[in-house]
Design brief:
A hairpin with a 2-residue loop joins strand 22 and strand 23. It contains two helices and 24 strands. By secondary structure, the protein is of the alpha/beta class. The radius of gyration is 37 Å and the shape is elongated.
């Protein structure tokens, strides 16, 4: 029995051996197909990841372009009020801008009013280059960061405060199969310049300290000042000299002789000129006075001072209260500086809504004197000096009263002697000084850019 059993067993094993090879081949084929599938999927995923990475890089390039162009606008803010291409708004075509050489656009930035008002480097050539839609590298030393270029900047009301719309493209891997382009559109407000005049306008180095007013000066002037609140030190590229000489006293001006301390102007018997302005002259102004506005109609007063203006311990009171059309430009003091160019203030000085125009004078603000109980405005306000000083320089000595100037009431809208181009206001000295019944000129503070309000992203298809 045993031999027969062995033969049967051997036969069964031999019969099964025929199925092993096909089974092994089938399993191998399945594994090969699975491997190929996984490899294809991996390559697809890798390609998708690379594509997404390139898209992200192109978007980064577009964002960098927005930042670069916004920075360029900030350096020459006058261009924010004008479109990139005046003849095509919006500039949707791929063609070059067809603006004429006299157009007010980025195509010819030299035509834009007050383009060089800021003290920043002259970047008109770069503005024109950006305005021609040339591709700009993010970093010339790192080409992998990509490039950007302007698509369009539109502005609905050229010359007036409104909302600007900036469209910028960014790209990476230019002219390669993997080239990726993204487009951004951002919108932001272009705000009108602040209305207030500078409480202090100087032409040379000054030590001012704490001040509740704008300080205006030419470029590269050393100004030591700490403006409070929303006030600023503003440097502008103004004509030289920025402050023209004061007008000469007209014929028929009333001589004050010696002004009594605490005197009232106009005095009984004084007569205004044909424009209703009381005009006076005095050799040295070393006493205070009060303007009589008891009639409810603000008086117009002009005083020409030949030499020293010493207001230490003195009060110059021009109370407007709630009277309309009343402010510092109704009372003007002109320093002629014939033999002396000094203005002296101290802790006892009180000046309420008076305009002092003395472009050749230096203000010396000292720590001496006794503080006066007199105030400008409401009792207890602590407001002691709402004067407007347009002078050569200002220097504090010692621990002076701070702030050296309180919030001024004067605004450029009270000073109609200016030339306007839309809402770009041009510096324009009076051709004929006349009586100077208002401020002598209007200075064009540049507009301010608001934060970006909206972002819109679009990935571009490369053909």
């Amino acid at each position: 029995m045993q031999p027969k059993t062995q033969r049967l067993l051997f036969k069964t094993r031999a019969d099964s051996a025929g199925f092993v090879l096909p089974l092994s081949l089938g399993i191998g084929l399945i594994m090969l197909l699975v491997g190929i599938t996984l490899m294809v999927r991996s390559q697809t995923s890798q390609g998708s990841a690379i594509s997404q990475k390139d898209a992200a890089k192109s978007l980064d390039a577009a964002e960098s372009g927005v930042s670069e162009i916004r920075a360029l606008i900030n350096q020459h803010r006058a261009i924010a009020l004008y479109p990139a291409c005046q003849s095509q708004q919006p500039w949707t075509s791929s063609s070059s801008c067809a603006d004429s050489s006299s157009a007010l656009s980025w195509h010819s930035p030299a035509n834009i009013p007050q383009i060089n008002l800021s003290c920043n480097p002259d970047l008109k050539a770069k503005i024109a280059q950006v305005g021609q839609r040339n591709w700009q590298p993010i970093d010339a030393s790192k080409p992998e960061q990509g490039e950007y270029h302007l698509i369009d900047y539109t502005y609905p009301t050229p010359g007036s405060p409104s909302q600007g719309t900036l469209r910028v493209q960014g790209r990476v891997n230019a002219s390669q199969p993997s080239e990726s382009v993204a487009e951004l559109e951002v919108k932001f407000l272009v705000n009108a310049p602040p209305p207030q005049v500078p409480g202090l306008w100087v032409q040379s180095a000054s030590t001012v300290g704490d001040i509740n007013a704008d300080v205006l000066s030419p470029c590269n002037t050393s100004i030591t000042a700490t403006p409070r609140g929303n006030f600023q030190v503003r440097e502008l590229n103004l004509p030289t000299p920025p402050l023209p000489a004061p007008p000469s006293a007209p014929t028929g001006v009333i001589s004050l002789g010696s002004l009594a301390s605490g005197g009232v102007l106009p005095r009984p018997g004084d007569s205004p000129n044909a424009s209703g302005v009381y005009q006076y002259k005095i050799s040295n102004l070393n006493q205070g006075f009060t303007v009589d506005n008891s009639s409810g109609i603000p008086k117009q007063i002009e005083i020409w001072v030949n030499d020293t203006i010493n207001l230490a311990g003195k009060t110059l009171i021009h109370s407007c209260g709630a009277m309309p059309n009343c402010g510092p430009f109704q009372v003007k003091i002109y320093g002629l500086g014939i033999a002396s160019t000094d203005i002296t203030l101290d802790q006892g000085t009180v000046i309420c809504d008076v305009f002092i125009y003395a472009p050749g004078y230096t203000v010396t603000n000292t720590a001496g004197g006794t503080s006066s109980a007199t105030e400008c405005g409401a009792a207890g306000s602590g407001t002691k000096n709402t004067g407007v000083f347009w002078v050569n320089s200002w220097n504090n000595t010692g621990s002076v009263r701070i702030p050296v100037l309180d919030p001024p009431r004067g605004s450029w809208t009270q000073a109609p002697s200016f030339v306007s181009y839309g809402s770009i206001f041009l510096l324009q000295p009076q051709e004929t000084w006349g009586s100077w019944t208002q401020a002598p000129m209007y200075v064009p503070y540049p507009p301010t850019l608001g934060p970006i309000q909206t972002w819109a992203t679009q990935e571009k298809t490369i053909n």
